[in-house]
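Today's session is about reading a structure prediction critically. Students often jump straight to the picture, but the first step is always the sequence itself: look for stretches that repeat, for charged clusters, for runs of hydrophobic residues. Only then move on to the predicted structure, which in these notes is written as discrete structure tokens rather than atom positions. Here is the chain we will use throughout the hour.
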Amino acid sequence: PNDEERGPLLSIRRQSALSAGMTPLHGRGWFWILVILAPLGFVMLVVVQGVRSHRQASAGAIRSRKAGHVAKRSLEEVVAGKVDDGSSQILKSINSFFLDRFEQSATGMTVDEMRSFLREHGAEDELADRAAELMERCERARYGGGSGESDAKKLASEAIEVIDQLEELQSESTSRSRS
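Below is the predicted structure for this chain, in token form.
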């Protein structure tokens, strides 16, 4: 075929015309750097994400383990009379315990919701009733004006006992799930 039949394409008659002065792509250094860095970068991203996930999970587990201690320390301040508004402090302590230990807010739960929530998490009826009634009395004292510091101290002492029992409940269910 002549040049008119081929159209605008020009024929390459020699192989040397294809590579005249050009190094093949795989012969260049930057090509191999890219080939190696791309999968290496992906592996690094996966490792970093795994470490972040582990740290977040670990932080939640630590917070869960310390929930009772933190709540009881706050309640002991009420018992010692170091807090002005004891009933408010008791509610905050119980709510923070529930958030950290069960990942569920106790604020806004009705008495029946509190009972059923605790029963779902393995509490016996007596403990669920006691905790729900404690929350109800704390809310009554907080929003109804309560009868003073001695009531707050009694409520705080009872809250400490209830939290101790809830911690035992949680540790029993954790040890059963590991078995």
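Discussion point for the tutorial: The helical segments are 3-6, 29-79, 86-102, 111-120, 125-144, 149-178.
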